[in-house]
């Protein structure tokens, strides 16, 4: 889900700052606005970081009993996440207009109601003519189904200025959402179902597939392949930073293998530590992914020692950092389970570091073998190069190239 960060939100947070009293609440608000306005030129930054910072403001305000600020920040969050529309927020807090309420919005809402009631009256007449024995409850049920189908309104290309509402689409979409939830890993189930039910071609393919899986699998494989191609380009870039690698990996937990069911919402789990990517295993336990540089890594991954290739000090340092994360998670496991519902007692970790291209004189298989040998002797921590991760993910897609 995209996070909205614009001038309206900035103005509203300014009003919230005026209402705040406690210095901790004010400081958290200032940090959130500073993050918003730290983008290049006029672009404002949003994303998960902004949501987390606003949630922190709400938490600070609740801790000190500033409930007016809590309510205002809650509206900020709902606006950023698209649950409150811009005209609604503007009119509710008079962000850009003093005195009387916005008469243009008032007229707009009135026109919408007039159109809606007119449609309801006409639809009632048509339904009554077609169903003379129907009662009040039947009519209510009919309009309830129309309301659901309205989410999938069409704008036909051959009828400019006109719209089309097809009966029964909401019921199909609900069924699709359930099938997608059970069989395919898709983040926005409702949006995926909406795209399918509004596509005649997709519906035709779905109808021809007795198991109802072909469309879903094709769409998801296409999405994964596109994400993997972007990741490979980032991994091969000799100038890319760890932050860019993290952005390319976020939301793609399938790349790490089928034993992971998703990403945890919180990255700062222990005071002083912020994990790069927190994954959740199928057994409910946490799996921490620590990211180092890929093709831009400075220095080698392996070195010769007594005739064999062994990992260098920077690999061991990265493993040590991951082990420290696990120690901190172990020490705070009771609090994390009670507050966040995350099981860390059986937590594990993965270190992603380097690329065979940083040592072109060493065979890739020798680098991978040295890291695998290290993995067999380090409990709860696995080390991989980015290239091996991407290659494994590509093979899991079963593409002709991977074969």
From TrEMBL:
Pfam families in the cross-refs: SduA_C
Domain Shedu protein SduA C-terminal: 241-389
Record protein name field: DUF4263 domain-containing protein
Organism: Actinacidiphila epipremni
